[in-house]
Amino acid sequence: MGSSATSPSSSISITRDGDWYVARDEETGVTSQGETRAEALANLSEAIDLYNEPIDEEDVSEPDAPWF
């Protein structure tokens, strides 16, 4: 039940997983989901925007978990 849509700069795949649609940007690996295809794509768009935001190095702290 998968399909894919393509834009000039990237390829998006949309699959169905149970009650959810899963949208994935193949170029970046960013993935999101939604209850409808439109919601999954809107959520993916927001996730890609967040992925592309520059990171302020001053706001990033060193992890303190023992497995790091």
Question: Can you describe this structure?
Answer:
The protein has one helix spanning 37-52; strands at 3-6, 11-17, 20-25, 31-34. It has one domain. The protein contains one helix and four strands, in the order ββββα. Strands 1-2-3-4 form a four-stranded antiparallel β-sheet, covered by helices on one side. By secondary structure, the chain is of the alpha+beta class. Strand 2 (11-17) and strand 3 form a beta hairpin. The chain starts with a strand and ends in a 16-residue tail after the last helix. Residues 1-8 have low confidence and may be disordered.
Query: What is the rounded distance between the termini?
Result: 38 Å
How are helices and strands ordered from N to C? EEEEH
Biggest sheet layout: 4 strands, antiparallel
Average residue-wise pLDDT = 86
Strand content: 25-35%
Number of domains: 1
Shape descriptor reads elongated
* Rg calc: 15 Å
| SS-based class | alpha+beta
- Provide a count of the helices: 1
Compute the number of strand runs. 4
InterPro entries: DUF7387, TTHA1013/TTHA0281-like
Protein name: Putative nuclease of the RNAse H fold, HicB family
Organism: Halobacterium salinarum (strain ATCC 33171 / DSM 3754 / JCM 8978 / NBRC 102687 / NCIMB 764 / 91-R6)
